[in-house]
């Protein structure tokens, strides 16, 4: 399912986070500080970093900045006891992708890690297909019957998610979390609007259609 780098100077937190992620099926490499973590990145492939902010030698924000410079496609999730908005902004400006405040719920940590990996397509196929529609996540391209079609980013992510799980019903909450992120607090009507736009773009000739599962969510089916 992927290899994760867990970086924290507190051995108890390292052990806790490592156990949570290992229990969720991930391989975990622990590091006690940011410098050791950077060395580890140069020695083995890593799919995502879970990093504490307050550490000796190299703070988590400094580590995130270095990762963004040398490994631009590597997602970083920051862990910190700080919960002020200014601290979060500082973390995001350093290049972090997500931010979780201690103490945190283990299920939320795992959910955020999985959402980030899906966002970066680290644990999913780069190509999804349904009917005559082919989506290539690595190039962000859509073809219908061999013809190219331009899609806005959110519509692409939504269709890719449904196509990657074609035949399977995804709940509204699952879709919102994966496409819009766990912090999305907007109106769920946003999802319905995007579904309707996709339906308008892709007619019956494309060999697939989006099914509404009343009271639950949506499913992409092939004709």
Précis, in short:
This protein has helices spanning 11-23, 34-43, 60-70, 85-93, 106-119, 153-164, 172-180, 189-201; strands spanning 3-7, 27-31, 48-52, 76-80, 98-101, 127-130, 133-136, 141-144, 147-149, 170-171, 208-213, 217-222.
Helix content: 40-55%
Strand content: 15-25%
- The quaternary structure here is single chain
**How many E-type strands?**
12
Separate helix tally? 8
Description:
The protein has 223 residues and is of the alpha/beta class. 41% of the residues lie in helices and 24% in strands. The protein has a five-stranded parallel beta sheet, sandwiched between helices. The chain has a four-stranded antiparallel beta sheet with strand order 6-7-8-9, covered by helices on one side. It is elongated, with a radius of gyration of 19 Å.
Feature tags:
223 residues, alpha/beta, Rossmann fold, Arc Repressor Mutant, subunit A, 2 domains, five-stranded parallel sheet, four-stranded antiparallel sheet, 24% strand
Topology diagram in text:
Blueprint: E1 3-7, H1 11-23, E2 27-31, H2 34-43, E3 48-52, H3 60-70, E4 76-80, H4 85-93, E5 98-101, H5 106-119, E6 127-130, E7 133-136, E8 141-144, E9 147-149, H6 153-164, E10 170-171, H7 172-180, H8 189-201, E11 208-213, E12 217-222
Parallel strand pairs: 1-2, 1-3, 3-4, 4-5
Antiparallel strand pairs: 6-7, 7-8, 8-9, 10-12, 11-12
Helix pairs in contact: 2-3, 3-4, 6-7, 6-8
């Amino acid at each position: 399912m992927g290899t994760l780098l867990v970086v924290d100077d507190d051995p108890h937190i390292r052990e806790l986070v490592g156990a949570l992620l290992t229990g969720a099926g991930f391989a975990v490499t622990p590091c006690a500080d940011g410098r050791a973590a950077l060395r580890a990145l140069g020695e083995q492939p890593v799919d995502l970093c879970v990093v504490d902010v307050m550490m000796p030698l190299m703070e988590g924000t400094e580590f995130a900045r270095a990762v963004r410079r040398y490994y631009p496609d590597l997602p970083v999730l920051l862990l910190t006891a700080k919960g002020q908005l200014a601290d979060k902004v500082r973390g995001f400006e350093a290049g972090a992708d997500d931010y979780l405040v201690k103490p945190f719920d283990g299920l939320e940590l795992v959910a955020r890690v999985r959402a980030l990996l899906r966002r970066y397509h680290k644990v999913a196929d780069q190509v999804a297909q349904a009917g005559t529609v082919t989506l290539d996540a690595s190039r962000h391209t859509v073809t219908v019957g061999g013809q190219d079609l331009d899609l806005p980013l959110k519509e692409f992510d939504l269709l890719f998610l449904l196509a990657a799980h074609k035949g399977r019903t995804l709940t509204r909450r699952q879709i919102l979390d994966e496409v819009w992120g766990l912090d999305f607090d907007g109106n769920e009507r946003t999802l319905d609007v995007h579904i309707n736009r996709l339906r308008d773009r892709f007619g019956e000739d494309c060999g697939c259609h989006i099914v509404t599962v009343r009271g639950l969510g949506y499913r992409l089916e092939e004709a």
